Amino acid sequence: MKIKFVSTLVITVLLVTAYSCKGEKQNETKANTPEEVKEAPVEAITYNVDVASSAIDWVGSKPLEKHTGTLKLASGTLETKEGVITSGSFTIDMTSINVTDLEGDDKAYLEGHLKGEGEGKEDHFFNVAKFPKAVFEVTGITEKEGKTFIDGNLTIKGTKKNISFPATTSVEGDVITLNTEVFTINRTEWGVNYGSKSVFENLGDKFINDDIEIKISLKANKA
């Protein structure tokens, strides 16, 4: 009886540990009321985002699987003063949704579903026919927990929310690079509700997690 109890206890601990690690959110953001976008100071240096050398990586998940992918940028600028970003914005091409962990028909199906292709599925996720672009606008830079956080308004599907995420920047010659840590947004804050158990009832284990992990890598050249 004692051996059985110990074995059960060990299994329980392992399951709890595994669930905790799997459910851990990286740099979870809070979606707040949009903030005012400040104009760049007159003496700011402008950099144009090199869309060919920039990318956004994302991860979406369900209880027993996850999918990875990328998004491309359509345009963007960053303004700096003394090497520190003071303002800027970039536009995300939502029609470029790309799934990287699947191939063939499975890849095409999921990309089409995310884009809103198919009758009755237009608004399941991002409805790119109606909302082909998403936009991020810098509203400020803050320092906390020994890290630099970029604050900004993120607009997806016509909904604008202010978020904050940790990032590092570096300037070498006429080039500036910006790399974020992986951070997490709750998609339902922007009305992307399909398969969300926080929105719909009786989904059982057929739900899709609300959280999307994102990592942004930008390269920009001096204008």
Summarize the structure.
Helix content is 15%, strand content 47%.
Structural shape: globular
Task: Classify the beta-strand content into a percent band.
Answer: over 45%
Head-to-tail CA distance between termini: 74 Å
Helical proportion, percent range:
10-25%
Number of helices: 2
Low-confidence stretches: 1-22
**Rg estimate, integer Å:** 20 Å
**H-E string:** HEEEEHEEEEEE
Largest sheet: 10 strands, antiparallel
Taking all residues together, what is the mean pLDDT?
90
Could you give the count of β-strands?
10
- Category from helices, strands and their pairing: alpha+beta
What does this structure look like?
By secondary structure, this protein is α+β, with helices and mostly antiparallel strands. Helix content is 15%, strand content 47%. Strands 1, 2, 3, 4, 5, 6, 7, 8, 9 and 10 form a 10-stranded antiparallel beta sheet that branches. A hairpin with a 2-residue loop joins strand 7 and strand 8. The longest helix has 22 residues.
Note the main attributes of this structure.
223 residues, alpha+beta, 2 helices, 10 strands
List the helices and strands and how they pair.
Elements: H1 2-23, E1 45-49, E2 55-62, E3 65-81, E4 84-99, H2 104-115, E5 133-144, E6 147-156, E7 159-172, E8 175-180, E9 183-186, E10 211-222
Antiparallel strand pairs: 1-3, 1-10, 2-3, 2-10, 3-4, 4-5, 5-6, 6-7, 7-8, 8-10, 9-10
